[in-house]
Amino acid sequence: MSNIIKLLPDSVANQIAAGEVIQRPASAAKELLENSVDSGATNITLAIKDAGKTLIQVIDDGYGMSEIDARMAFERHATSKISKAEDLFAIKTMGFRGEAMASIAAIAHVELKSGTEGEDVGTCINIEGSTLVSQEPCQCSKGTSIMIKNLFYNVPARRNFLKSNNVELRHLNEEFIRVSMINPKVGFSYYNGDKLIYKLLPGSLKSRIASLFGNVFNERLLPVEQITDLVKISGFIGKPEFAKKTRGEQYFFVNGRFIKHAYLNHAVNNAYTELIPVDSFPSYFIVIDIDPKDIDINIHPTKTEVNFQDARYVYAVLHAAVKQSIGKHALTPTIDFDVNPDVEAAFRTSPSTDLKQPSIKIDPDFNPFEKKTSSSADSSFQFKKPSVENWESLYENGKKTNDPVIERNVFQNISTDPDATFDSNKFMQIHNRYIVCSVKSGMMVIDQNLAHIRIKYEEILDNLKRSNQNSQQQLFPQNIHLSPDDTQILKSLNDDLNKIGFRIEEAGTNDFVITGTPSDLQDINAVNMIETIIENHKASNNDLNFDKNISLARSIAIKSAIKSGIKLDEREMQDIFDRLFMCNVPRISPDGKNILTIININDLANLVQAKSNT
Q1: Is the pLDDT of residue 434 over 70?
Q2: pLDDT > 60? residue 439
Q3: Residue 113, class by beta-carbon neighbours within 10 Å (0-12 exposed, 13-18 middle, 19+ buried)?
Q4: b/e string for 502-513 if b means 16 or more Cβ within 10 A?
Q5: How far is 35 from 37, CA to CA, in rounded Å?
Q6: What are 235's strand-pairing partners?
Q7: Which of 217, 391, 557, 560 holds its CA 20 to 30 A away from the CA of 226?
Q8: Which of 30-39, 73-82, 318-327, 558-567 shows the lowest per-residue confidence on average (mean pLDDT)?
Q9: 407-614, CATH topology level
Q10: Which pLDDT value is given to residue 334?
């Protein structure tokens, strides 16, 4: 039998490794930005074209690399960070010239220029698909410039699976935000083509957050700080009143690295219990500093997930820190100890004066329409108590009415009055949730919330096709501020929102003004509606059968439909009944739930008999 196990060439091995680390243009940009941060750079520039598919360039003023280091950076298993296995458990940096560079070079055209301080010339290297094309001296200043061109040019299957430019751009924006936020002492610039997206000056964490998400966050943030022997927690959280319908601004950083951690996310959300609506999410920017030996960051190729040696302890400290910050800064009344005593003296009376609360005398039986019967010459009035005789007569009509809208125990009336009958032409509402009516085979029960969701869902889909929905102009336009990621989503949805009646205009970077809403959506909170649409779009975007119009219609229908617990009159129940059976799918809601059921007359009879025998 011939031998079948072979050693893979380095170029093939690098492409396999690239599949784990470099999943999209944003992954490559993240690696380059983190390398620049670790190089000691004070200013970093990111430039992209065609959402990173054509070009990703990162320029920094860091240490730079020598000629040998520049070449070694593209070799497999080459790094400046570790030299023995134990170093894996004490990683404090992101990665510097190595680790991912070999993977990137295997799937793109790469040009590197780097120079060190005190050297007259630097090094220029060109690599295509792991193959060294050229290496020569060049003129360059201290620092490094890396250009990645034609990403995945030799892996067409992976390039074909990249999303649209808008989606890839959102991922690039998010990676830039994550790296730049946790490094506020470093200046960052971000260009998309010839357009400057961000120009971030060095400063504090709070100023960096405001630069990334808007100056409105200066008013919305509460400081968080808690120091123990094992962990230090710092950063900022959002005030409860500014909780949003989207998960946009939620960031954890452990030892300077962005992470995702559902357990810690629960700790923060739990601290907001009863302070924000159930379907809202608080903003937080939490920095956790812990001994690297107490965590494991190598459980995921991109290092966005970590394991804590004592996760319960970190949870408890984080929860207490957030709770303390909310109670200290958001809910406790502020006492001003700096009031000028001269100002108070102007409103102060003599110490000997007794201060009494003013009293008001009133006549509880006062009636201005009752005239005085006295023969007195004056025109004053006299008052007498209203009569309460025969008060029961006020309720006689209510007792005799057969209107099913009036809340009463219908089944009790039927059991006590053998002559009582149910009018099959009428509707009845049970517990302000179900609409009940008589049908030929028995009794139909309709869930009013699910029925109205189906009605609105099909109407919105129809409007998206016809593009003729009227818009109701807002007397007071509403402002909405979004994260850069959510801004891209709203821009991609704006044409469709316009078709169904929304009118949304840009008012600056990540700021919008809602000037109109669909005319058939009465008394809606337009800001919450838009935030919900964006959040549902993000949640559904990864589904295999994702359809933008269906996601949009479902979001608006669920948000604007009549809720359970709303009392309906006869006309409203009739309207829901008629419109429901004009729908294409009247029995099933957009989420796959049953809207109605019919209880057969024989089943009703069996139910009654079963109850009578018990």
Answers
A1: yes
A2: yes
A3: buried
A4: bbbeeeeebebe
A5: 5
A6: 224, 286
A7: 217
A8: 73-82
A9: Ribosomal Protein S8; Chain: A, domain 1 (3.30.1370)
A10: 43
